[in-house]
Amino acid sequence: MSSTDGTPAVAPAMPPGFTEMPDPQFIMVGDGHRIATYSWGDDAAPVVVVVHGFASSTKDNWVATGWVRDLLRAGFRVIGLDQRGHGASDKPHDPHDYDLRQLAGDVETVLDTYLVDEAFYVGYSLGARVGWEVIQDFSARIPRAVLGGVPDGIPLARLDIDQVRALVEDGTPVTDRVTQNYVALTERVPGNDLRALLAIAGGMRESKTVDPDPSHAPQQPVLFATGSLDAIIEGSKALAAACPQGQFLEIPGRHHFNAPGSRVFREQAIAFLRETRSADL
Q1: CA atoms lying within 13 Å on the CB side of residue 99
Q2: N vs C: which end of the chain shows fewer Cβ within 10 Å?
Q3: Taking a C-beta distance cutoff of 8 angstroms, is the pair 235, 248 a contact?
Q4: Half-sphere exposure of 154 toward its Cβ, with a 13 Å CA cutoff?
Q5: What whole-number distance in Å separates Cα of residue 226 and Cα of residue 232?
Q6: For residues 240 and 147, what is the distance between their CA atoms, to the nearest angstrom?
């Protein structure tokens, strides 16, 4: 999970009765990289695919915060993936491996491999930005989505790539405060690779589709949710307003990196996803 002001996140405590992490199941995507995936629940239940934010992982973003537990209790099957460059997935160091279309394509490959024709999408931060692409690139498969903390511009735009590169290559200390905090953010989750996360930031800036286009907004129901203390809240509201079936949830008292742990966020998102289930009965 990334913070727009660069403040490092604090790993959430495991809630009572938290869901255990299964061993990752690896899927090979089109350009030869391995994506770690995880599955919980009844194969016959409606599927929710969850996609985490920058410098996070499925465990950090969705298991430790109680999302997987609560989705299972609500009767869903959950499929999670560690985005390339994160968690147990491959961590290439080339920015060209992190185009948004590639990240969205990874999600589609995961659904194909699990033989899932239709799934709800829940993404946070970078995962929500990827979700903006996913729910349009193969919209027929994503009837409803939740996009939390979705940035309305270039993700990681305030990161000083040159300073991080100097740190990686010759140990030159980072002096920019925001960039210092991003470095601390990457060190929070075990297994993070600073070179890979640097490449992700570079890939976001090189992507031709990096800015969400409100004139080409998703047509299906989408719940946008952003913390009341998050600097990107107005941009998130604007994206929600551009969607014909967009709704907006202001998560009270939360900033960018602690919003996923909000009970209000989880409960409202699950209620939103259950609306479709009720309509289909």
Answers
A1: 9
A2: C
A3: no
A4: 14
A5: 8
A6: 10
Q: Which residue has the tokens 């994206």?
A: 239
3 state SS of 164? helix
3-state secondary structure of 82: coil
Q: If we measure between CA atoms, which residue out of 26, 53, 275, 81 comes closest to residue 186? A: 53
Residues 1-35 have pLDDT tens digits of 444 333 334 344 444 455 789 999 999 998 899 99
**Per-residue pLDDT tens over the stretch 99-148:** 888 999 999 999 999 999 999 999 999 999 999 999 999 999 999 999 99
Residue 32 has, within 13 A of its CA and on its CB side, a CA count of 1
Which CATH topology does 25-155+194-276 take? Answer: Rossmann fold (3.40.50)
Please report the sign of the dihedral spanned by the C-alpha atoms of residue 13, residue 264, residue 258, residue 70: positive
pTM of the model: 0.88
CB contact set of 18 (below 8 Å; sequence gap of 6+): 63, 64, 66, 69
- Helices of type H across 114-160: 126-137
The closest of 24, 124, 142 to 65, measured between CA atoms, is 124
Extract the tokens encoding 33: 């990289």
Q: What is the dihedral of CA 129, 25, 200, 18, to 10 degrees?
A: 60
Cβ contact 2:256 at 8 Å = yes
Nearest CA among 92, 100, 105 for reference residue 128: 100
Q: Which strands form 222-227's sheet, in the order they lie side by side?
A: 25-28, 34-40, 77-81, 47-51, 120-124, 145-148, 222-227, 246-251
